[in-house]
Amino acid sequence: MDLKGVLSISGQPGLYKLVSQARNSIIVESIEDKKRLPAYASSKISSLEDIAIYTVNEDILLHDVFKKIFERENGNVCPINGKADSNAIKKYFGEVLPEHDKDRVYVSDMKRVLVWYNILHKNGLLNFDEPENTVATENVEVAEKIEETT
After folding, report:
1. Which CATH number goes with the domain that contains 55?
2. How far is residue 108 from each of residues 90, 103, 144, measured CA to CA in Å?
3. Which of 24, 85, 87, 115 is deepest in the core (most CB within 10 A)?
4. Any long-range contacts for 109-114 (C-beta under 8 Å, 24+ apart)?
5. What are the residues facing 118 on neighbouring strands?
6. Does a structural domain hold residue 1?
């Protein structure tokens, strides 16, 4: 799965793909509705490739969490959505990633991961068959573009 160029922007719902770089911003496209908009340096922009979840031992990359959800659901969407009860979200996330740090991973974080998984699944962006080494080298280019705008 290639999370290179898949971005989360604070204050904006959903996920975005990096399209281009403008003078003082980057141009992103919504994965769900394909609308394009500028993302400025004042926005907190996070690449999904760089996000990790706290565990009791060592942090686990979001890619690996998505893979665990994918395997648990046999390649289907996650039955828990963003509007589910907090206890249901905690229970489901505990089954998928039992070693997560219960003090540092909040329900809002769990909900966000499950919503992101469903967005990526709905748009056919979950593919765990490709090698991950090519993603790491290409991700450097995306990170450099984001840093140039901030």
Report:
1. 1.10.10.1650
2. 10, 13, 29
3. 115
4. 109/53, 111/82, 111/84, 112/8, 113/53, 113/62, 113/65, 113/66, 114/69, 114/78, 114/80, 114/81, 114/82, 114/89
5. none
6. no
Q: Which residues of 40-65 are buried (b: 16+ CB within 10 A; e: fewer)?
A: eeebebebbbebebbbeeeebbbbeb
pLDDT in tens, 119-135: 999 999 988 775 554 44
CB 124 within 8 A of CB 17: no
**80-101 residue pLDDT tens:** 888 889 999 999 999 999 999 9
Containing structural domain, residue 75: 51-122
pTM: 0.82
